[in-house]
Specification:
394 residues, disordered N terminus, elongated, 3 strands, three-stranded mixed sheet
């Protein structure tokens, strides 16, 4: 288990977690001028299976088969088609070779393998605010793929030994989540690779008509979450950013790469696609147990929409679970407000009932629990909630 946790912490550095936006670029103004000269290579041909590169492709092919069978793979067809459409819009002819898989994991990450398999984690989809921010991430990962950074890594090392280690790592760790973490750690790139992927990704993003400045917003938002527990030094040391430290000029460098042309945001399209899945992702975020980070995320969301009933429920649930000084009152305020709004999740009534039960307000707890059961009679915890009602009605 310790090995698995360590792998998952390293995974955010290995895939994207937008720490993989490069370390400081030496001449950002010059880079911005060079973006128009960056060319997308032609489609790749599959390498022979008896080569090091072919072995790496084969390994990733096998992992993709396991991925498709995993219960963590999100099977929502609308989301899959949407992500595929975005990648095709960006990839400039490489679309037939790329498969995008969304996985339900509450961490901010994405990765791409040399065989064209791309993974996008639900924690990332929860955090981006619009299509342009999502495209910034997809474009960066495509940059690694188009520049063949995974293959360069393999050739730079003792290829057979590295490949053998990869096979052993993936095959030896139980659980799909651990395999994803280790796969992401395989593709932890150098700063040079990250800088090149930044430039290619921004070129793809701007060429497709998106506002490249949104890449800086993604970085800023993520860093705000990390700083609540890591302080001002978050992003400069530790597992997440140990190979890609943040700097004071990070946001300005991304803005210089993006230029000042503006572009498409696609906020409404993005919200529409994720709407059916978002409540589950919010609940996963709460269960992640990093309450201070989650509160930063939820408060940012509520600043944009104070009436966001799903986020009000999620923030109230964080306060209820954390249960520190003053948290019961905060949980009660959020959950009571959420349950009075249209389209309140059934789970908000259950959480409100639990808070009222803790406060020994039996009448309010009974009302909340009964509403929950009326809305979700087949819920997995329905029997437990009915036992609460029997106890309080005695």
């Amino acid at each position: 288990m310790n090995k698995l946790r360590s792998a998952l912490r390293r995974a955010t550095a290995g895939g994207l977690c937008f720490a993989t936006l490069a370390g400081p670029l030496a001449t950002p103004v010059a880079v911005a001028q060079d973006l128009s000269a960056i060319k997308v290579p032609p489609r790749f041909t599959r390498p022979a299976s008896n080569t090091d590169e072919g072995g790496l492709w084969g390994l990733m092919d096998r992992e993709e088969i396991r991925l498709k069978r995993s219960p963590l793979t999100i099977q929502d067809q609308a989301l899959k088609e949407y992500l595929t459409e975005l990648v095709c819009r960006l990839s400039d002819g490489h679309c037939p070779d790329i498969r995008v898989h969304a996985v339900r994991t509450p961490h901010f990450n994405a990765m791409m393998a040399p065989n064209g398999m791309m993974l996008v984690w639900s924690g990332l989809l929860l955090r981006v605010e619009n299509e342009a921010q999502l495209v910034a991430i997809l474009g960066h990962e495509l940059g690694h793929y188009l520049e063949r950074h995974q293959v360069e890594q393999l050739r730079a090392a003792k290829s057979q030994a590295v490949l053998s280690t990869m096979v052993g790592m993936v095959g030896g760790v139980g659980g799909f989540l651990g395999q994803m973490g280790l796969m992401a750690n395989m593709f932890a790139f150098s700063r040079e690779h990250e800088a090149r992927a930044d430039r290619m990704g921004m070129r793809l993003m701007r060429h497709a008509g998106y506002d490249g400045r949104e890449a800086a917003v993604v970085w800023e938002n993520l860093l705000a979450e990390l700083q609540v527990t890591g302080g001002k030094e978050a992003g400069k040391r530790g597992d997440l950013f140990e190979t890609h430290p943040a700097t004071a000029g990070r946001r300005d460098e991304l803005l210089q790469l993006a230029g000042e042309s503006g572009g498409e945001l696609g906020a409404e399209r993005f919200r529409k696609v994720i709407a059916p899945l978002r409540l589950g992702w919010l609940q996963d975020e709460v269960k992640r147990g990093q309450y201070e980070e989650s509160l930063v995320l939820f408060e940012r969301m509520l600043k944009k929409d104070p009436q966001d009933v799903e986020v009000l429920f999620a923030r109230g649930e964080v306060y209820r679970r954390r249960d520190e000084g003053g948290d019961v009152a905060k949980a009660l305020a959020d959950l009571d407000r959420a349950t009075r709004l249209p389209k309140a999740p059934a789970e908000a009534f259950r959480s409100l009932g639990l808070v009222q039960k803790q406060r020994n307000d039996r009448a309010a707890a009974v009302q909340a629990f009964e509403t929950y059961l009326a809305q979700a009679p087949q819920a997995p915890d329905a029997g437990l909630v009915r036992s609460y009602l029997e106890e309080m009605k005695r």
